[in-house]
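Milestone 3.1: sequence recovery, worked example.
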């Protein structure tokens, strides 16, 4: 007679129960893993959107720095396409709604710092007090973020000595080969100086236009002509925002890279020699049709920190001040209309090289926007993010 073992049935029930429990646990783990992945993905998109929004504040500052919108000016704008080019689509997918970046500019309400209010009906600095608000919304994938901050324009009044076409901290050589003076004057200027702390060597008065006075072993110092505190402020401004990085990139991959992202009026070259013919064009002279770097009405300042400045031709025209820490060689048929300063030596040959231009100096004597800085304690994140 066969007797059934009751333990066998109990074992079977236990195994079935264990399998069922494992199945339930596995399903729960799958659901949990799915939810975690979903939440992680959503959180990642939120973080990326926040980074985009923060970058929008930076781009807004750069926009205001390039052209501060005073009373009656056009509404400033950050170009979404140019901005989006900085963010690869593989890492920053198109947003579920709206666009990657949306930046708006508003005037303040005139309340004194540190608690300025906001006037959302006005998009320029209509009260002309150098204070504005930037509001930036970033979106990528399912994520969105919105931040805003108040910014203030930082200006500096240039105090450049009038009437100096060239200043050389060492020797200065002026030897032309063309049929016009190497150093001349642009109307309405009638006189200017070429100063050298060292010796001035030149072929004869034909190398300088009437009204250009040469003074070798001059007692006039560089500080008299171009104060060091001005140079420091200009360098700080030139290193602001995208300008410094753009030119560093341009020098490292020279030639062929266009560094004028916002048509800046300050160029800082950190390392290496610079040839004027390779500087990117910003304007066209309506009288000659020639390409220029800047213009008489809107001149700029080029500073070469650790290299020389050469000018070898291609009819390049520079309207502004060229400041070289080392030395310069101006030759060929390119021209500087304004002023040239070298802490080291200077060598001018070829055809017309420098024309002193009083209009250029006057236009640079206006207050210069050195930077656009955040007003402390005004940054804030807006939740939930909404379309601007």
């Amino acid at each position: 007679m066969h007797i059934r073992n009751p333990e066998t049935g109990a074992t079977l029930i236990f195994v079935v129960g264990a399998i069922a429990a494992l199945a339930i646990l596995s399903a729960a783990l799958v659901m949990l893993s799915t939810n975690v992945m979903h939440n992680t993905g959503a959180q990642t998109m939120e973080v990326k959107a926040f980074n985009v929004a923060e970058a929008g504040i930076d781009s807004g500052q750069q926009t205001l720095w390039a052209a501060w919108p005073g009373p009656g000016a056009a509404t400033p704008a950050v170009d979404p396409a140019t901005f989006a080019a900085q963010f690869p689509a593989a890492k920053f997918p198109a947003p579920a709604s709206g666009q990657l970046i949306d930046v708006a500019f508003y005037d303040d309400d005139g309340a004194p710092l540190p608690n300025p209010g906001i006037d959302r009906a006005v998009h320029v600095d209509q009260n002309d007090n150098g204070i504005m608000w930037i509001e930036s919304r970033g979106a990528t994938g399912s994520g969105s973020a919105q931040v805003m901050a108040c910014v203030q324009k930082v200006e500096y009044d240039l105090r450049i000595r009038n009437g100096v076409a060239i200043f050389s901290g060492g020797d200065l050589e002026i030897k032309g080969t063309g049929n016009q003076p190497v150093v001349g004057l642009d109307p309405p200027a009638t006189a200017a100086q070429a100063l050298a702390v060292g010796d001035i060597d030149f072929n004869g008065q034909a190398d300088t236009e009437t009204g250009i006075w040469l003074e070798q072993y001059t007692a006039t110092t560089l500080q008299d002509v171009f104060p060091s505190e001005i140079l420091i402020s200009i360098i700080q401004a030139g290193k602001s925002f995208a300008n410094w990085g753009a030119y560093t990139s341009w020098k490292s991959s020279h030639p062929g890279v266009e560094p004028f992202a916002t048509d800046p009026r300050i160029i800082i070259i950190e390392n290496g020699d610079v040839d004027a013919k390779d500087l990117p064009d910003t304007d066209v002279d309506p009288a000659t049709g020639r390409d220029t770097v800047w213009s008489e009405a809107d001149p700029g300042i080029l500073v070469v920190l650790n290299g020389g400045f050469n000018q070898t031709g291609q009819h390049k025209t520079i309207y502004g001040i060229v400041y070289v820490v080392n030395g310069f060689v101006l030759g060929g048929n390119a021209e500087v209309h304004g002023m040239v300063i070298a802490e080291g030596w200077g060598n001018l040959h070829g055809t017309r090289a420098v024309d002193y231009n009083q209009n250029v100096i006057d236009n640079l004597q206006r207050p210069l926007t050195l930077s656009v800085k955040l007003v402390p304690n005004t940054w804030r994140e807006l939740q939930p993010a909404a379309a601007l």
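Residues 50-156+371-382 form one domain. Residues 6-66 form the longest helix (61 residues).
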